[in-house]
Design goal:
By secondary structure, the protein is mainly alpha-helical. The protein has two domains: 70 residues, Arc Repressor Mutant, subunit A (Orthogonal Bundle); 134 residues, Tetracycline Repressor, domain 2 (Orthogonal Bundle), CATH 1.10.357.10. The protein has nine helices and no strands. α1 packs across α2, α5 packs antiparallel against α7 and α8 packs antiparallel against α9. The N terminus is likely disordered.
């Protein structure tokens, strides 16, 4: 990304104009580090992916990497946040209501291209149940956000008349069950790569939709 150059008169000497170039460089460098970290963690896992290896792959110094992220734990959280962002942007950004749920099998299948990251998240989710774990707040927030998102789309389906009326409590139970299935299918695939992730998730979603349309 090219640096922003100052224009005569109006912006010359402006603090905002002077900061713009370094700011862009910092954003670009941060993105490079996250991409490199994703590659290293996916290839070697969290324990085997060293800060030195990440810095070398990103083409930055160890000091620069620490300056931007502070610790290996923060790097992991940044990677998982970026993984979530890309997943939503690529698979779910334009979906709503029942269509959102029917896109979930594609999203689950896309995780198979990043086995190392899925392993990391599965391990981290279990370890971070302890309030003392450095990623506890991130995992807690992630689950709360995902549940709220799923509940919002199921609520939309209720309001649109696509499923039977449900209370907020009933909606939350349904999305918790669906989340548990997604986590479980991901774990089964890690243990047995022959698991048909997309097929299993599709069957689960369709059974859920059928139940949502018919339950008393």
């Amino acid at each position: 990304m090219p640096e922003v150059t100052e224009t005569p008169d109006a912006t010359r000497g402006s603090p905002h104009a002077r900061a713009r170039g370094p700011y862009r460089t910092g954003v670009r460098r941060r993105a490079q580090v996250i991409d490199a970290t994703m590659e290293v963690f996916a290839q070697h896992g969290y324990a085997g992916g060293s800060i030195r290896a990440i810095a070398e792959r990103a083409g930055v110094s160890h000091a620069t990497l620490i300056q931007h992220f502070g610790s290996k734990e923060r790097l992991l959280i940044a990677v998982l946040e970026e993984w979530d962002r890309r997943t939503v942007a690529e698979g779910l950004a334009d979906a709503s209501g029942l269509d959102y749920f029917r896109r979930l099998p594609e999203v689950m299948a896309s995780h198979q291209a990043n086995r190392g990251l899925l392993e990391l998240f599965t391990t981290l989710a279990a370890e971070a149940s302890s309030p003392t774990h450095p990623a506890h707040d991130f995992i807690e927030h992630r689950y709360a956000t995902n549940l709220a998102t799923l509940a919002g789309h199921l609520g939309d389906a209720v309001r649109d008349g696509d499923v039977v009326p449900m209370t907020d409590a009933q909606i939350m139970i349904e999305v918790r069950l669906l989340t548990a299935v997604m986590d479980g299918i991901g774990l089964q695939w890690l243990l047995d790569p022959s698991t048909d992730v997309a097929g299993a998730m599709s069957a689960c979603v369709e059974r859920a939709v059928t139940a949502w349309r018919t339950q008393d």
